[in-house]
Specification:
Elements lengths: L8 E12 L5 E18 L2 H6 L8 E7 L12 E4 L2 E11 L4 E8 L5
Antiparallel strand pairs: 1-2, 1-4, 2-3, 3-6, 4-5, 5-6
Protein name: Head-tail adaptor protein
Organism: Tritonibacter scottomollicae
Pfam families: Phage_HCP
């Protein structure tokens, strides 16, 4: 795997906007912007997906951002927006003490 260090892609971190539906249950009604970051983008290769036994047809990628205070709140419950699409965060890994955060995500298919 090649080392990606150039953070030349703008991503937006999103938080679910929730409201009570007619049945009295809490439901996600949209996604609010939390903050923007510059990130390095690296698509996950087909070979890597095969080694991980991924069978679904989806776009997976890694994003690397610099550590910052706001990043500590990001979890798999959040999303990110990149290149006009929303991505589901599936993993977060700190690389070095307060260095980079590596975010693994998959592209959410657009609903027609």
């Amino acid at each position: 795997m090649a080392e990606v260090t150039e953070r030349d892609r703008r991503i937006v971190f999103l938080e679910a906007q929730r409201a009570e539906n007619d049945a009295g249950e809490e439901a996600i009604i949209g996604w609010n912007t939390l903050f923007y970051r510059w990130a390095a983008y690296e698509p996950v290769s087909d070979g890597e997906r095969l080694r991980a036994a991924a069978v679904e047809q989806r776009s997976d990628a890694r994003f690397r951002v610099l550590w910052s205070g706001p990043m500590v709140q990001i979890t798999g419950a959040h999303r990110l927006r990149f290149d006009g699409a929303d991505w589901q965060i599936t993993g977060l890994k700190q690389r070095g003490f307060k260095g980079e955060i590596e975010i693994t995500a998959w592209k959410i298919p657009e609903v027609a």
